[in-house]
Amino acid sequence: MSYSNNPLLAKARKWSVELVIKEGLPISVAARRAGVHRVTLWHWLKRWQEIN
Asked: Is the model's pTM score more than 0.85?
């Protein structure tokens, strides 16, 4: 995974994961809204599920 200096990345990651979990959107739709690739969002979801 590459390093990012983006200070808003954590908020964007949380928002996109919430789109899938709380609002029930498909991963492809949530990824398009968040502006990330669907595989990236899939990895974020997988990591979130491991933590919680």
From this structure: no
